[in-house]
Specification:
The chain has about 180 residues and is α+β, with helices and mostly antiparallel strands. The protein has one domain: PPM-type phosphatase domain (Phosphatase 2c, domain 1, 4-Layer Sandwich), CATH 3.60.40.10. The protein has helices at about 1-15, 20, 70-75, 130-135, 140-150, 155-165; strands spanning about 25, 30-35, 40-45, 50-55, 55-60, 80, 90, 100, 115-120, 125-130, 175-180. Strand 4 and strand 5 form a beta hairpin. This is PPM-type phosphatase domain-containing protein. Pfam families: PP2C. It comes from Stylosanthes scabra.
């Protein structure tokens, strides 16, 4: 599928530029809307897509956590550590099991996305695409409730980011809100 190929190409491009970019990596969430009727979402890592369907939050993506994909990591020669008071980490370093880049961990990580599909109908009100800096401090339904109160999607995204900061999010916060016409 084209989405999987795009993720593979992105990962290779990031890895090939690691001397310039450093050894770090990134999670990602993407959405493709076809003819305002068909929505495809994909992700690696813990960036997330959440739909509002009739006011109810519907998580469209899978958070790729090391404990969930421990078998894949160990089959690739890596390990998952669980230090008390911390989240599970690949080789004691990375808190996600799928990511772009991360050259020093690449042999243990996957970068293939999970892909989901939804039909857009009048019940679908909005879509939130956001990084873990939002989701670590806010539940899916809370985010939908906040975004629904603001008509302008750009202002809604800014409101979500501001709320995450107000809740002392310590991670990166990227957020896009897409509003559908019912």
């Amino acid at each position: 599928m084209s989405i999987s190929k795009a993720y593979e190409t992105t990962d290779k491009a990031i890895l090939s530029h690691s001397p310039d970019l450093g050894r770090g990596g990134s999670t990602a969430v993407t959405a493709i809307l076809i003819n305002n009727q068909k929505l495809w979402v994909a992700n690696v890592g813990d960036s997330r897509a959440v739909l509002s369907r009739g006011g109810e939050a519907v998580q469209m993506t899978t958070d790729h956590e090391p404990n969930t994909e421990r078998g894949s990591i160990e089959n690739r020669g890596g390990f998952v550590s669980n230090m008390p008071g911390d989240v599970a980490r690949v080789n004691g370093q990375l808190a996600v099991s799928r990511a772009f880049g991360d050259k020093n961990l690449k042999t243990h990580l996957r970068s293939d996305p999970d892909i989901q599909y939804a039909d857009i109908n009048p019940n679908i009100e909005l879509l939130i695409l956001a990084s873990d800096g939002l989701w670590k401090v806010m539940g899916n339904q809370e985010a939908v409730d906040i975004a629904k109160r603001v008509k302008d999607p750009q202002r809604a995204a800014k409101q979500l980011a501001t709320e995450a900061l107000n809740r002392d999010s310590k991670d990166d916060i990227s957020c896009i809100v897409v509003r559908f016409k019912g």
